[in-house]
Amino acid sequence: MNPPRPANSTPEPIPRAVIIHESPIELCQFLKFGGLVLSGGEAKQAISEAQVLLNGTVETRKRKKLVAGDHVTFAGQTLVVQLGSTGK
Fold first, then answer.
1. Is 8 exposed, middle or buried (0-12, 13-18, 19+ CB in 10 A)?
2. 51-73: per-residue pLDDT in tens?
3. Interatomic CA distance for residues 10 and 12, integer angstroms
4. 3-state class of 11 per DSSP?
5. CA 61 to chain centre
6. Is there a contact between 28 and 38 (Cβ–Cβ < 8 Å)?
7. Spatial separation of the C-alpha atoms in residues 12 and 85, rounded to whole Å
8. pLDDT at 14
9. d(CA 79, CA 19)
C-alpha cells in the first residue's frame, strides 16, 4: 500500500514509452526524438540548465548514453526508453 500523499504535492507524471531501434542513444537525441523539445539546441540548453532528470536524478551530460528502461523527465513529462526490433 502506498503512503498517503500530502495535499499540496503534485502527482508523479505517468511515463510514456518511446521505442528506439538502436541502443544506446544520447540524452540530447532522445529528448528530441521523444518530442519533449523541438531542436537539438533546445535539448542541450535544457540539459545544461539542469532541467532534465534521468532516473530521478538531475543529469547535465548532454551526451549521456541511455539504455532500455531509463526514465527521462523534462517539463512535467516522463519518457521511458524501450528498445524495439529493427526488423532485420
1. exposed
2. 999 999 999 999 999 999 999 99
3. 7
4. coil
5. 13
6. no
7. 29
8. 84
9. 10
Collapse the DSSP code of 37 into the 3-class scheme (helix H, G, I; strand E, B; otherwise coil) and give the result. Answer: coil
Cis peptide, bond prior to residue 3, ω within 30 of zero: no
Report which DSSP code applies to 50. Answer: T
Rounded to the nearest 5 percent, the helix, strand and coil shares of the chain are: 20, 25, 55
pTM (2 d.p.): 0.80
3-state secondary structure 8-26: CCCCCCCCEEEEECCCCEE
Kindly list the structural domains of the chain, giving each domain's residue range(s) and its CATH number in brackets, ordered by start: 16-83 (3.10.290.10)
Tell which wins on pLDDT, 14 or 41: 41
Q: What are phi and psi of 72, to 5 degrees?
A: -115, 125
> Over the Cα atoms of the chain, what is R_g?
14
Answer whether 64's CB lies under 8 Å from 30's CB.
no
What is the residue whose three cell numbers read 538502436? 22
